[in-house]
Every structure is written in structure tokens, then in C-alpha cells.
Amino acid sequence: MPLFLKIFLFDFFKFTCDLQVMKKRLFPFFFSLGFSLFFVLLSGTGEAFVPQAPHLLHLVMGKIKQPVGIEAYQTKKILNYKDTQEGLVELEEKLIYSYPNQFRSQIISDTMTSFSVESDFKVVKVMNGVIVSHDKLLVDLYTDILLYRDYETLLSQMASAGIDTSKVSFQRVNDTICYVIGRPLAKGKPFAGLWIEKESFLPIKYMVEKNGWMVEFFYNNWQRVSKTWYPMQVSIFLDNQLFAMIHVRSFDLKSGFSKDLFDIEHIEQLYPKNGLDPFDENNKQVDDLDKRMEDFKKLYE
Question: What predicted TM-score, i.e. pTM, was given to this entire model?
Fold first, then answer.
């Protein structure tokens, strides 16, 4: 091979190698420059990137996860809504989540039978051995965020609760920057929506309006077991007044719950409906706690 050809090939090979090295070195620079330029141009328009509600809820569900099941024990302190001077009602509750879309909450008591079941969007509530309702109480809607851990299902549930899921914006809640799903009806007025902490993607506030009542749920002290997150404290406000405080004593990931626990048709066969037998002595033997709970219940129906 002629000498000039050897020199040419050597120089060409060296140039090619230098070019590859240069590309590797300059790529991060140009990538960073382009990324920064994108946000400079975006900020110049006065806008910031805000994900749409489906994408945002997908990120939330990716954070809190959906296990096979959860068993939680909690203490619920309900303030006397009519007379705050009388103190409060304190209830011990057991909550069972069987995913997807099955939930059971029951009061732990030796003197009364009270529980509610939600299964595939149907609800039944039993109090003192009698079916009293097939509707989910307004103040029990805090479980929506904890039960529906699939973003499409939660999105549908929020829409059915009157939340405008087409609107997402930023808002501060106690110095915390949040994404907000929901549209204010008037500037400065409270509105139904879901507030999600921007950095962690954990829900911190859920507000629903129904039958002229506005209820707010605040989720605090989220804790993790394995990959699943659950709030250890929930505060419930009814028309800006503190209604109840929930303290979760423990929660564990469990499975293998009996299907009968969530079988609404089976429950309807076991318990009579309220008012079917007005002379039944069992319906007359309602203690003071039952009466006060009934008063609370009537407010939200």
C-alpha cells in the first residue's frame, strides 16, 4: 500500500475517533442547553407545565400503590355538631379494603352492630342490626382516595362527586404547593376538588359539595408499609367546622378476606330494612350513642 494512502487512512481514522469523542462530550451540554431553553421560553409565556387530571392521578396511584388488601384499625372522634360543649363521641373502627373496589367499615363494640359495605359502587349501611341506608354518607367520602387506587376509577368517582376534572392548576395549602384538580365557581370561593402535594404526589385535601353541604377532608402523616402509603390522620370539616378526627392506630397489608364480608345481596338477606317492622323491640332498644349517631346521619342524607 502506498505511503500516502496509509497516512490518509490513519488521519481519517483519527478524525473519526475525535469526532465521536466530541459528540459524547458535547451531547450533555446541548441537551442541558435545550432543556433550559425550553423552560426559559415556557416561563416567558407566563405558564408552567401542568399535567392533565388523568396523568396526574396516574402519578398519584404510582406513588401510593394498590395492594391486594389493607386492614386498618382507627379511632374516630366525632364532635357533637349540635352542642360542642357536650364533648364528643369516640368510636373504635376496623376498616377492610379488598382491591379493587371493595370496602368494609365496622364499629368495634359489644353493645351494637354497625357496619357499612361498599362493593363495586354499591353501598349498604347496617346500624343496630337494621339496614338504614344504601347511600354513602357525605362524611364517609374520605375513603374514596384510599379505596379507588386505579386512576381511571378515581377519576370517574371524582366526576360523579361533582368535581370538574378538566381543570388542573396550582395552589398553596399551608405553605405547601399543590396540584389542584377542580374548577372554582367564583374567585376566592371554596370549591370541590382534590389537592395533591407537588413534590410527593400525596393527596392532602379532598373537598366535596352535596345537598348544600361542603365537606373537607385533610390527609396527614402518610406512612408506608412495603410500597403502599396510607394516611395515619384524617380531619373532617363540615361547612368549615371541625366535625371529626381520625387517628389510625395501625394498618397492615393483608389478603384472603371472606367474600361474604362484601356481598351486599347476602347482607340484605341477613338484615331487615329500617321500618319494615315498627313494633320490633330491637328497633326500640337504641342507646344514647345510637341516637346521637342517627342525628348526625340525618344531617347528611
Answer: 0.76
